[in-house]
Recover the amino acids of this structure.
């Protein structure tokens, strides 16, 4: 499954997606307002507690999210040692580590569909400029659906070219892939239009379209 | 926006994701290996044009945000939007838009040279112009340190700009998607 979601029944899992995202945003802003190392370190402990104890997430799953930024954090600390000092460096590193972990906790405890619903909800003000939130959700769902399909198509094109002896060139995969995708998009849009997804009149908005759960 | 445009946007977002799944090429001495993902940014702009290209990258970022591990190296989720190099991610929709805009400007006489100009300006200059100051501000390091730290990626990005340009010219000949207002985009 193409998702970093880890199913569970903990209170963190059951909390509404909107609430978790709001908390994450608040944490992001809050962490940049404080520069005391003990406050930032405290926040890190709280986030770890929420993730490991509250949501019962396995350590390796969290670590997998931190690992890619690990080298950056180490390099950042070294730069700070040379330029500003160890304390500022510790604050900068702990701050980023806390945010990355908190975001990983939200991602691992929230279903993709719930997050897409939040994206749709966040897109509601865009109605003023003519964007329909439901279509935003539709496009995201289409992309998620087509990623495995295109990966397979790319592999097939590469195999076909390898069978004809053109094994080394990666670039040659791209032209047929892009054209295949453009044709796919054409067919897809015809299918969607046939099912009534075309651009014509906007239907009245449903009364309670709030997908973010109980306020 | 027509349904077809939505489909283009969705499928190009998927292309960017698939390019991120290709194994990265490690370069000695650089913490992050060179990946094909920004090639997708360039392709989206130079095949779809400014509006649809920029939107495709916005959708791609939304897909990353909802937890699909489609950034190179299998990364994804909200964590990548708060990391020290998140500025590069935020630059992608802008980059695709600029590439698309430059492509549309030169569409009638579009060739490899114009494609290169568009992809180098949008796909290299714009991305660094956003990513470098972001890292500097966000991680509290001097601008110059952030700049020299990212220089090692430039050669790889130039190679990708050339690749994207070759593909863009070939696709324009076979299946042109950009239509200029008023006249039909006829190619070849």
């Amino acid at each position: 499954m193409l998702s970093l979601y880890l199913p569970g029944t903990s209170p963190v899992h059951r909390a509404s997606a909107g609430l978790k995202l709001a908390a994450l945003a608040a944490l992001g802003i809050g962490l940049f307002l404080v520069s005391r190392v003990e406050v930032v370190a405290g926040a890190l402990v709280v986030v770890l507690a929420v993730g490991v104890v509250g949501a019962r997430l396995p350590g390796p799953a969290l670590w997998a999210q931190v690992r890619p930024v690990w080298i950056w954090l180490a390099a950042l600390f070294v730069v700070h040692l040379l330029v500003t000092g160890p304390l500022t460096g510790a604050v900068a590193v702990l701050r980023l580590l806390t945010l990355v972990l908190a975001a990983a906790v939200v991602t691992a405890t929230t279903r993709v569909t719930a997050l897409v619903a939040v994206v749709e909800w966040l897109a509601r003000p865009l109605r003023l400029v003519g964007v329909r939130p439901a279509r935003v959700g539709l496009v995201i769902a289409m992309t998620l659906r087509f990623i495995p399909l295109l990966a397979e198509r790319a592999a097939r094109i590469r195999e076909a070219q390898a069978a004809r002896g053109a094994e080394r060139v990666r670039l040659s995969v791209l032209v047929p892939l892009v054209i295949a995708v453009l044709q796919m998009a054409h067919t897809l849009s015809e299918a969607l239009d046939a099912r009534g997804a075309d651009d014509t009149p906007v239907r009245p908005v449903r009364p309670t379209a709030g997908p973010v759960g109980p306020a | 926006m027509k349904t077809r445009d939505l489909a283009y946007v969705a499928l190009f977002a998927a292309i960017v994701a698939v390019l991120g799944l290709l194994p990265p090429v490690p370069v000695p001495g650089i913490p992050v290996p060179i990946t094909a993902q920004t090639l997708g940014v360039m392709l989206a702009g130079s095949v779809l044009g400014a509006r649809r290209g920029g939107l495709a990258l916005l959708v791609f970022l939304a897909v990353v945000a909802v937890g699909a591990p489609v950034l190179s190296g299998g990364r994804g989720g909200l964590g990548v939007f708060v990391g020290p190099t998140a500025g590069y991610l935020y630059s992608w929709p802008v980059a695709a838009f600029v590439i698309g805009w430059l492509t549309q400007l030169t569409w009638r006489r579009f060739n490899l040279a114009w494609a290169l100009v568009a992809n180098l300006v949008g796909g290299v200059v714009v991305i660094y112009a956003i990513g470098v100051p972001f890292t500097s501000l966000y991680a509290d390091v001097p601008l110059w340190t952030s700049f020299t730290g990212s220089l090692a990626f430039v050669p790889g990005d130039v190679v990708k700009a050339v690749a994207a340009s070759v593909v863009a010219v070939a696709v324009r000949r076979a299946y042109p998607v950009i239509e200029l207002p008023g006249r039909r985009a006829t190619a070849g």
Residues 133-163 of chain A form the longest helix (31 residues).
